[in-house]
Amino acid sequence: MEFLTIILPVYNASSKLDECIKSLNNQSNLNFKCIFIDDKSTDDSIQKLQKSLFDSKFIYSIIMNDVNLGPGGTRNKGLTLANTNYVMFLDIDDYIDLQTIEDIESILKSYQYDAVLFDYSIIGKIVLKKSQFSSSTDEGEVCPEHAFLKMSGSTLGKVYKREIITNNNIHFLNIIRNEDYGFNKTVISRCNKIYYLKKNLYMYVMHKDSLVHKPELLDFNNTILAFEYISKHIPSNFNDFLSVLKVQNLLISRISYMVLKKYTIKQIKEYTREYLKSNDIVFIIKRRLLGSKEIYFLKKLNKDRYLNIVFYFKLKILVQKILNYR
Questions:
Q1: What does the pLDDT look like over 252-271, one tens digit per residue?
Q2: DSSP H helix total and E strand total for the chain
Q3: Which pLDDT band, with edges at 50, 70 and 90, does 21 fall under?
Q4: 298 within 8 A of 313, measured Cβ to Cβ
Q5: Does 90 share its domain with 39?
Q6: pLDDT tens for each residue of 24-35
Q7: How many domains does the chain have?
Q8: Which DSSP letter does residue 62 get?
């Protein structure tokens, strides 16, 4: 009996799926199954997928959406179809290390953890190894509060016990961006036993046409919706930790949005001052304040605009002062 279901949304990925299928087919441990869900692709993704899977060594099913559901809705559909003890999400244009399934099952044989987290690599012109956590974390068991605060909000490098999701009616939001943030933070808040494997097993492949690389799709309302969802679904003992996340992420998301929409430096500073007045900062966890996404947006700005890469450093200092304020 397979212990893990990998849910893979598919959308217009005809030219990008080979490496993913290859990594699944060559796993050292084949004790898993895959659910491929085509989200109404307009290219020949299904035909290419069927051809690639013709002689596959693992169990799989291909589902086709009647309408385009988006990444969140498609993953939700996969969760309703999964029947194994554990689930994992993998984008069809990404791939995993050939030891991934074996490493995960080995950990779960020692103890039935609610979640297993592991590191990932960003594959582009160069390979960047990234930690699942925003601060130094030792391999082994981690407490839910630490994971809630420090774990990345994406689906990269995460395996969950399926009943944690179903018993708490947790689902992905139907929004273009941050649909995974609300889901992952909520799930991890409901976990009691979490294991961190300090290995880069998930390979995130950079593509120019990915949603994450389209700054015009940045909508601050999506971030607000994600936090509203988290606040409604996490246990009450996580409320203080949620306050910290709001200070760290809502502020920075809003600033990124203001930069993209060409707000003046004065307007941004005024917003941060007002934000400080309206939020009671209970305690602050030091962390990396601006991530790769925010830096990407800032670097994409034309040099002749009033906001340039020099201002990024000034902005970072300003945010640090706000977060350290008592």
A1: 667 777 777 778 777 877 77
A2: 13, 10
A3: very high
A4: no
A5: yes
A6: 999 999 999 999
A7: 2
A8: E
